[in-house]
Amino acid sequence: MGPSTPPLANHDKRHVSGYSTRPQLPNELLHAILGRSIADGLHTLCTRDDTSWEMNMLVTFHCVSFSFRAVSREIVSKGFNIPFYDVDDDETSYLRTTRKISSCLHQLGVQQRHSKGSFTTGHHFSETMADCYVSPLFLSYGLYINGLSLRTSALSSNAQRFLKIQPDVVSTLGEASDLCKQVNPRHIADHLAMCVEGELESARSGLALVEAFDYLAERIIMLNVFQSSASTFGGGPIAAVHELLNRTLSKIEEFSDENSQLFEASSLLKATQLPGISRALDLADACDLKEDRYRLAERCDSISRKWKDI
Question: How far apart are CA 122 and CA 115, in angstroms?
C-alpha cells in the first residue's frame, strides 16, 4: 500500500476552492465608494459631451473583481428598478440593459445642451424604453434635464415671458427633488439631488428678482408720466407712486441682504443674465427722482451700483 496523501494545507484549500486571499474592502466601504462613483458617473453622462469612460463605467466595475461586480450590480439594479430575475443568470443582459440606460441619459443631456431652449422632456419618455427605466432615479434625471431646458428658454426671453415660464421651471425641479428622495439606495442620487437643489434655489430667486425688477420698471415709467404731467394731475399720484416704489425697493433690498451669496462669483444665479433687470436699472438711473422721505434716489443708486457690479 502506497504512502497516504497528506492533507492539503489551508492555503492550498483556499487555492483549490477558488477563493482569493487578497485583502477585501469592508462591504459598507465598498458600497459607499461604488455608490459615489456611480452617482458621479451618471451625472457626468447627463451633463457632458465627452463621456467615454462613464459609458463603460459599469463594465469596468464588472471586470475588476467579484465583489465590485456584485456590489455595483446591486446598486444599479436597485437604483433603476431592474428586476433581478431579468438578469440574474445572464451577465450580458444586465450589461446591455445598463448600457441602454446610460446611452439614454447621455442622449437626453446632449439634446438639452444643443436645443437652444426648445427641448422639453416633461413626463414623456421614449415608448421603446423598458419598464425598468421607469424609476425615481431615471425620472428625476429627466425632470432635471427638462428644468434646465426650460430655464434656458426663460433666460433667452423677455421679462414677461420669463415670468410665465419660470414657475414651470420651479415646479419641474421641485418634482425632481421629490423623486430624488425616493431613490434607493439614496447615495446613488446624491450628486443629482445637490445639483437639483442648487438649480431650484436659483430658479426661485430668479423668479422673485425678475418680478421685483419688473415692478420697479413699471413704477418708474409711471412716475415719469406723472412727473411730466404734474400740472395736470397734481402731486397726489406722484406721492402714491413714491409709496409703491418704496415697497418695491424694500423687497429688492431685503432680498439682497438675505441672499448675499448670490453676489459671489460661484453663484448659479447671475443677475445680468436675468431678463428685465438691466432695463429696470437703466430706467432707475435715468429717472429724475426728487428728494423725498423714502430716499428713493439714494436707494435706487445703491441698488443699481450693487447689481451692475455682479
Answer: 15
Spell out where 14-101 has E strands: none
Distances (CA, A) of 172 to 45, 161, 191, 264, 302: 20, 17, 18, 26, 35
Q: In angstroms, how far is CA 195 from the centroid of its own chain? A: 4
Question: What mean pLDDT do residues 121-150 have?
Answer: 71
Q: Which of 253, 262, 255 is nearest to 303 (CA)?
A: 253
Q: Is residue 140 part of a domain?
A: no
The pLDDT tens digits of the residues spanning 17-47 come to 344 455 567 788 898 999 999 999 999 998 8
Q: Which stretches of 205-259 are assigned E, i.e. beta strand?
A: none
Please check whether residue 81 lies inside any domain of the structure: yes
pLDDT in tens, 229-248: 888 888 899 999 999 999 99
CB 274 within 8 A of CB 162: yes
Residue 176 has pLDDT above 90, yes or no: yes
**CB atoms closer than 10 angstroms to residue 250:** 13
Number of domains present in the structure of the chain: 2
Domain edge (last residue) among 94, 113, 132: 113
215, 105 contact by CB (below 8 A) = no
Joined grid coordinates for residue 205: 430667486
Look at residue 85 and tell me if it is in a domain: yes
Asked, for residue 267, whether it belongs to a domain, the answer is: yes
279 near 163, Cβ under 8 Å? no
**What is the DSSP secondary structure assignment for residue 125, as one 8-state letter?**
-
Higher pLDDT, 67 or 133: 67
Question: Domain of 96?
Answer: 25-113
Last residue of a domain, one of 113, 138, 171: 113
- Cα–Cα distance measured from residue 261 to residue 282, given in angstroms and rounded to the nearest whole number: 24
